[in-house]
Amino acid sequence: MPDSSDTPLDALDFVAFDTETTGCTAASGRMVEIGAVRFRSDGVELDRFQCLINPLRTIPWAVTRIHGITDAMVRDCPSESDVLPRFLRFLGDPATTVLMAHNAAFDLSFVGAALGRCGIEPPEHDVIDTVRLSRRRAPELPSHSLRSLVRCFGIGSTTDHRGLSDSIDLMRIYLRLIARPPAIETVGELFQFARPSRMKSYLEQSLRRSSRPTLSRGWWRASSLTDDSLPRRERWDRRNAVPQSPPENSSGADDSCEDTVPTESSRIVAQQITALIAAGKSISLVYDGGRNAGQRRNVTPVKLVTVTEVAYLFAYCHLDRKQKQFRLDRIREIVCE
Fold first, then answer.
1. 68-75 long-range CB contacts below 8 Å, 24 or more apart?
2. Taking a C-beta distance cutoff of 8 angstroms, is the pair 252, 324 a contact?
3. Where along the chain do its domains lie?
4. Backbone φ and ψ of 251, nearest 5°
5. What is the distance between the alpha carbons of residues 277 and 53, in angstroms, rounded to a whole number?
6. Contacts of 204 (CB under 8 A, 6+ apart)
7. CATH superfamily of 9-210
8. CB-based contact 285:331 (threshold 8 Å)
9. What is the structure's pLDDT at 312?
10. What sign does the CA torsion over 85, 87, 91, 94 have?
11. Are 105 and 134 in contact (CB under 8 A)?
12. Dist. CA 203–CA 175, nearest whole Å
C-alpha cells in the first residue's frame, strides 16, 4: 500500500489485469488465461504478462465463442499451480504497485479460488475496481462495460476478448478517466473515486460470497447457473426453489412464477448469457413481457437463477434504470454490445 494519500501517481506503478475462464462462478469454473500490463500514470508501458492455463476440464463451447480459447489451445499449457507464482512475481511490490480490474470481484474470485487450491498466500496489494471509477468519473455514459468504454473513448483496440488485450484496453481507459478535468494527480484523489481494497481481504470476501446462497427479499433462493448445469434437463429441478411464492409487489419484468419446464430455446439463451456474464459484457435484448414488450433494451447481466423451475436473468436495465428480472423463455433476441 502506498505510504501516503499525498503520494503522486507518478511515483507508483499500476497493473491492469484480466482473467478468462471456463464459466461465470469461481466455485465451479477455472481460469484458462491471465493477462496483465504494468504501466505508469504518464502512459509509459513497463511490462506485459500473458499465460494460458490448462483448467483440467472442458471449456464450454459458449464460452469459447466469447474469448476464442479452445481445449486444444490449453491442452499442453501449465496448470494454475505453475502460473500463479509467476503472476504474483509480476505484480511486484505492494508498497509501490496498485492493481486494477474491471468488475474486480469476478477476476479476484477466480484468482482467490486458485490460490486457495494451491495453498498460496494472497498478496497485500491494493486493488481498485475500474467499473466504480468509471461510474464516478463518467456518470453520463449509458454503460460502463469494457467494450462500451472502448467505444466511447475511441480507443483503438483489437476485437479479441483475451486477457492481455482487455488489460491493455483497461490501461487506456484508466488513463482517460484520471485525465478528465479535474485531473487526478495523487493516490488520495484516486482512492476518493475508487475506494481500494486490500487484495487479500478482497479475495477472502469474494470467496465467502461465492460459496454461500444468495438471498434477495427473502422469497427466492438464487443459484447461479454454471456451464456444467446447462445441458442437462434434470438440473432444472426444485432443489433451487423455496416453497414460498413471491410477494405481489415484487418488481421485475415479469411477476409470474408458474411451474414451467425450461424449453430448449431457454437453455440456449442461458448458455449465451452465462458466457457473456463470464466475459463481463453488457447485452441488448428484446423481451416479450412487461410494460415495454418488444422494445429493445440494454442490460448489464448479473446472474441466472431459477424460481420454481422457471429460469430468470437478473440484470440492471438501462431503459428502466433499475434491476429487473427477465424470464429466459421470453427473451426473443440477444445481441452482445
1. 68/160, 68/161, 68/162, 69/20, 69/32, 69/33, 69/162, 74/32
2. yes
3. 9-210, 214-336
4. -80, 150
5. 20
6. 112, 122
7. Ribonuclease H-like superfamily/Ribonuclease H (3.30.420.10)
8. yes
9. 81
10. negative
11. no
12. 25
Please report the DSSP string for 263-290 in residue order.
PHHHHHHHHHHHHHHHHT--EEEEESSS
Grid coordinates representing 270? 442461458
Residue 86 in contact with residue 92, Cβ under 8 Å?
A: no
Q: Is 161 a residue of the active site? A: yes
Spatial distance between the Cα atoms of 284 and 334, rounded to a whole number of angstroms: 6
Q: Which amino acid does the sequence have at 265?
A: S
Strands (E), the chain: 13-21, 31-39, 45-52, 97-101, 126-129, 197-198, 214-216, 220-222, 283-287, 296-307, 310-317, 322-327, 331-336
Local mean pLDDT, 10-residue blocks, the chain (337 residues)? 78 96 83 97 97 94 88 96 97 95 89 90 92 94 89 78 93 97 95 87 59 31 33 31 33 34 57 72 80 81 72 81 81 75
150, β-bridge pairs: none
State the pLDDT at residue 266. Answer: 60
Give yes or no for a contact between 98 and 73, defined as CB atoms under 8 angstroms apart.
no
Give me the catalytic one of 102, 125, 144, 161.
161
Binning the chain into helix, strand and coil, the percentages to the nearest 5 are 35, 25, 40
Per-residue model confidence (pLDDT) at position 267: 65
Q: Which of 310, 312, 318, 319 is nearest to 292 (CA)?
A: 319
Strand-pairing partners, residue 301, are 315
Asked if residues 170 and 131 have their Cβ atoms less than 8 Å apart, the reply is no
Answer for the pair 126, 197: CB distance below 8 angstroms, yes or no: yes
Contact 147, 281 (CB under 8 A): yes
Residue identified by cell 445441458 is: 231
Contact between 33 and 67 under an 8 Å Cβ cutoff? The reply is yes
CB of 298 closer than 8 Å to CB of 284: yes
The pLDDT score that the predictor gives to residue 29 is: 86
What does pTM read for this prediction? Answer: 0.66
pLDDT value at residue 48: 98
